[in-house]
Amino acid sequence: MVAYNIIFAGESGSGKSSLINLLVEQEVSKTSNDAVGVTDKRERYIAIQESDVDLLNIQNIDSRDTDVYRLWDTPGFNEGTQGTVSPHKATKTLKSLTKELSSGDGVHLLVFCCRFRKRITGDLRIVYHAVVSSIHCNNVPVVAAVTHADEMLESPEVWWEKTRLEREQKGMAFRGYKCVSTLKDGDFPVALGRRKKARDDMWQLIKTHAIPLSTLVSQPDLTRVNIILFGQTGVGKSSVVNLVAGRHVADVSSDVTGCTMKSTEYQFIVGAHHFRIWDTIGLEEPKIGANAYFSTILKALQLIRMVAAAGGVNLLLFCLRGNRLTSTVQSNYRLFYEMFCAKKVPVGLVITHLEREGNMEDWWSRNENVINTYGMKNIGHACVTGLADSGAPEKYALSRAAIYGLLTDCDRLGMYTMPPENWL
Q1: How confident is the model at residue 45 (pLDDT cuts 50, 70, 90)?
Q2: pTM (2 decimals)?
């Protein structure tokens, strides 16, 4: 397993989406100020956290401190006659999600979300049992996230103890709880540090009670994932490497000539996985000339054979600049996917240089049909900017989440081995 699956479920209008925005530190999920929810289907968001596991015994690691959390937002229960999601649809959506996750990585934690109230009502009991009965996985820990804590007239600890008997009588069991406010510091009533405390409390709740990805941290126990990063010169492959690392580990160039003149390996620890990424020499290098194009292709083929001999290629990451797609882009895709890897290695697309997009994901909405027309099959995409100092730090943070989302979604991939015959 490479990422935690954390499901947020519970009352409609309790603030599930607001909690996710709090944890991601971005306004990524729609929210509402009334009791009717706004989430009408499941949505996945990526949050990145520093790992609490000591991996200093692993050598030559470019980033060794990353845990990835998939935060799943689900439709709320008990919307009433004014709601947009029926109880049947909410139950069906949650059951479908947990069934899908249990067949793969599993569910590591269920966060039951509810609004603060003075007493535990019968309606809340019904919602709790509807949510818990929808979980297909056995022994999934359940914790409570009680929102609107700013309405409490007593401490959360006192309230939790006062309602303990009511919860027990209604069969509502939790491994842990946090009472939080999702208001910003400047919201009325103004309270400096309120949002940071709420974020810290929620992460403490999740990290304390989520099922661990792995208790093994030595290098031989980590699952290796081999990735080859390719694309045209100047497209920003090295910036993508830095995006994964969260810091500068690969040299980048501001012009189209590129700066990667040979394949370079980078290693990252993500959850219980050991990612090895090879940044390849850019195709269509203006400085090396057309006569050297064959040599560039040969070096790429030699790299794939070397990685195949070292255990296999799990994933091809194809970087392309977020502008007009050309036949050259298609040719480079076909070179690696069809000719080098015989259509046996899955491809993930990384669209770069999207810092000028208002919403970077809009690029995909506009160009998905063109991608399909070019026959560029893929198992996922990430729309990113690799410019950490672009003046839009929120876009860089979203980009890092997007690339980790792509990598973690490619977790269960088979190995590819280059056929023995020499065709080139």
Answers
A1: very high
A2: 0.84
Measured CA to CA, the distance from residue 38 to residue 218 in angstroms comes to 44
Strand (E) or helix (H) holding 65: strand 63-73
User: Beta-carbon neighbour count of residue 168 at 10 Å?
Assistant: 11
Burial profile 215-253: b = 16 or more Cβ within 10 angstroms, e = fewer? eebeeeebebbbbbbbbbbbbbbbbbbbbbbbeebbebe
Output the pLDDT for position 84.
Answer: 67
Q: According to DSSP H, which parts of 277-418 are helical?
A: 293-309, 327-334, 361-373, 393-409
Look-up of token digits 């009472």 = 179
- Residue 285 φ/ψ, nearest 5 degrees: -75, 115
Between CA 99 and CA 188 the distance in angstroms is 41
Can you name the residues that pair with 319 across neighbouring β-strands? Answer: 231, 350
pLDDT of 114-171, one tens digit each? 999 999 999 999 999 999 999 866 689 999 999 999 999 999 999 999 999 999 999 9
HSE (side-chain half, CA atoms, 13 Å) at 314: 21
**What average pLDDT does this structure show over 99-116?**
92
Question: What is d(CA 226, CA 235) in angstroms, rounded to the nearest whole number?
Answer: 21
